[in-house]
Design brief:
With 423 residues, this protein is α/β, with parallel strands linked by helices. The chain folds into 2 domains: 99 residues, no CATH class; 318 residues, Rossmann fold. It is built from 11 helices and 18 strands. The strands form 5 sheets. The protein has a 7-stranded parallel sheet with strand order 9-10-8-12-14-15-16, with helices on both faces. Strands 4-3-5 form a 3-stranded antiparallel sheet, with helices on one face. α6 links the parallel β9 and β10. α6 runs parallel beside α9, α7 runs parallel beside α8 and α10 packs across α11. It is globular. It starts with a helix and ends with a helix. The N terminus is likely disordered. It is found in: Secreted. Its EC number is 3.4.21.-. InterPro entries: Peptidase_S8/S53_dom, Peptidase_S8/S53_dom_sf, Peptidase_S8_Asp-AS, Peptidase_S8_His-AS, Peptidase_S8_Ser-AS, Peptidase_S8_subtilisin-like, Peptidase_S8_subtilisin-rel, Thermitase-like_dom. One of its GO terms (molecular function) is serine-type endopeptidase activity.
Length: 423
C-alpha cells in the first residue's frame, strides 16, 4: 500500500513535514502535521496541500527534500523511498536539504572483566578509606581527579539530576537501583517509559557517575555519597545505534524533566543542526551538556555532539597523556581518565577504555559543582571547570587535552571562593 501511494505522488505539488522530526520552531513553522499518534515507528497520517489527498508514510529513516516551489517532502530512507527520491532528484530545482543521521555509541576500545577482588593489573591501588566499596581502591578516575578529596568540602543544597542519553540503564543493578529516577526516564526506541538497558553501555556510563557509595559492594560513582540521581533516556537500541531526531528530542525531554547535567557518550562524524539546537536549548535553560570526543584518534571538531557546542572531553591514560585512541581538536575542553575505568554492567562490573568513560567522569564532577551551588549557569560551570583544570601536556589550552585534567577538588574550592566573594 505504501509503495503504491508514494509512487503516485507528484513531487512538485507536495508541501509537508512532520512535527515529531524536530522540537524546534525553525522546522515547526514550516510544516503541516495531522496525526493521532506520536510514535515515529507508526504509520502517520501526513497532510499534503489542498490539491492532493492524505497518504501514509513510514516515519523512520527520513530525508527532507526541498522542492522547486519552495515546499518540502519527506522521503523514507528505504527502497520505496529511494524510488521517489531518485525521481525528485532529477526534478529541476529540487535540492536535498538534510539527511537524518544515524548515531552510534562510542564503542569501548577494550572491555576488561574483573574478579571479586576488583584488582586491575597496572593500576596502582588507592589506599583511601573515604568509602567502603571494595572496587573503590581501583577507581583511578576518582583519585586522579581528586573527587574523593572534594567530597567533604561540599555543602549540598538539593538533589542534582544527571540525564544519561544512551542505551538505557540496568535499574535492577544493586549499585544503581537506588540512584535512578525511573518516573522521569523514557525510551525513545519503543516509545515507552521502560528505559532498561539491552546493550550495557548506558549502565557503564551511569555507574561512573553515580554508583551507590558506602554500600559495601561494587564501586562508588565519582559523586560519592552526594544526592545525585540518574534520569535514563534511552535513545540508542540494543546495537548501540539510534537516530539523530531521537537524540535531539531526548535532550529536550531531559531538560524539560529537570535535568541539571546531560551526558552524551555517542557520536557521528558530521555536524548535526538538530543536536546543536537541542544542546543550545539545554544551555539556555542552565543545563550543562557533556560529550565524549570519540575513539578514532581524529579531529572531532566537525563531529556531533562533540563539535556541536557540548563540553567535549578527551580521554587520558594513567601517565597523564592523551589516550592513544582519543579524538582531539579545538573543541576539546578538558581531559579525564578513560582507560581501565571500572563501572557497572548488567550482572556485574567491568573496566572499559574509551572517551565514553571519560565524559561521565566530567558529568559527575559537574554534578558535584552543581550540588555546591545549584544556581550556577551552564556557562559558569564551564568557566569553573576550564579554569581549574590541571595542565598535563602543554601549557594552556591544547588540542590533545583542552585545558588539562579536570580537577574536582580545585573546582569545588573555586565554587566556594565565588560564593564567599558574592556574599
Amino acid at each position: 500500500m505504501v509503495r503504491k501511494i508514494i509512487a503516485g505522488i507528484t513531487a512538485a505539488s507536495i508541501l509537508f513535514a512532520v512535527s515529531s522530526l524536530s522540537p524546534y520552531s525553525h522546522i515547526k513553522n514550516n510544516i503541516g502535521y495531522d496525526s493521532s499518534s506520536n510514535s515515529i515507528n507508526d504509520l502517520e497520517k501526513v497532510s499534503i496541500n489542498s490539491d492532493s489527498s492524505n497518504f501514509l508514510i513510514r516515519l523512520k529513516h527520513l530525508q527532507i527534500v526541498r522542492l522547486p516551489n519552495g515546499g518540502y517532502i519527506l522521503i523514507s530512507h528505504n527502497m520505496q523511498g529511494q524510488d521517489i527520491l531518485d525521481r525528485t532528484d532529477r526534478t529541476r530545482g529540487t535540492q536535498i536539504v538534510e539527511t537524518p543521521k544515524n548515531i552510534e555509541i562510542i564503542k569501548p576500545i577494550e572491555r576488561t572483566p574483573v574478579k571479586k577482588d576488583f584488582k586491575l593489573g597496572e593500576i596502582n591501588q588507592n589506599n583511601s578509606t573515604a568509602v567502603n566499596d571494595p572496587g573503590y581502591k581501583y577507581e583511578w578516575d576518582i583519585s586522579y581527579t581528586q573527587a574523593d578529596k572534594a567530597w567533604p568540602l561540599i555543602n549540598q543544597k538539593r538533589e542534582v539530576k544527571v540525564a544519561v542519553l544512551d542505551t538505557g540503564i540496568d535499574y535492577t543493578h544493586p549499585d544503581l537501583k537506588n540512584r535512578v529516577l525511573l518516573d522521569k526516564g523514557y525510551n525513545f526506541i519503543d516509545n515507552s517509559y521502560d528505559a532498561m538497558d539491552d546493550n550495557g553501555h548506558g549502565t557503564h556510563v551511569s555507574g561512573i557517575i553515580a554508583a551507590e557509595a558506602n554500600n559495601k559492594i561494587g564501586i562508588s560513582g565519582i559523586v560519592g555519597n552526594l544526592d545525585v540521581k540518574i534520569i535514563p533516556v534511552k535513545v540508542l537500541d540494543e546495537n548501540g545505534e539510534g537516530e539523530e531526531n531521537n537524540v535531539a528530542r531526548g535532550i529536550v525531554y531531559a531538560v524539560d524533566k529537570g535535568a541539571d547535567i546531560v551526558n552524551l557518550s555517542f557520536g557521528i562524524k558530521s555536524k548535526s543542526r538538530l543536536i546543536a539546537d537541542a544542546i543550545n536549548y539545554a544551555k539556555s535553560k542552565g543545563v550543562f551538556v557533556v560529550a565524549a570526543s570519540g575513539n578514532d584518534n581524529e579531529n572531532s571538531d566537525n563531529y556531533s555532539p562533540a563539535g556541536d557546542g557540548a563540553f567535549a572531553v578527551a580521554a587520558m591514560n594513567y601517565n597523564y597523556k592523551k589516550a592513544y585512541f582519543s579524538d582531539y581538536g579545538n573543541s576539546i575542553k578538558v581531559a579525564a581518565p578513560g582507560v581501565k575505568i571500572l563501572s557497572t554492567v548488567p550482572g556485574g562490573y567491568e573496566a572499559w577504555d574509551g572517551t565514553s568513560m571519560a565524559a561521565p567522569v566530567v558529568s559527575g564532577i559537574a554534578a558535584m559543582v552543581k550540588s555546591e551551588n545549584p544556581l550556577l549557569s551552564s556557562s559558569q560551570i564551564e568557566d569553573i571547570l576550564d579554569s581549574t583544570a590541571k595542565d598535563i601536556m602543554y601549557k594552556g589550552k591544547d588540542q590533545q587535552s583542552g585545558y588539562g585534567l579536570i580537577d574536582a577538588y580545585s573546582a569545588i574550592k573555586k565554587v566556594k571562593e565565588l560564593e564567599k566573594n558574592n556574599k
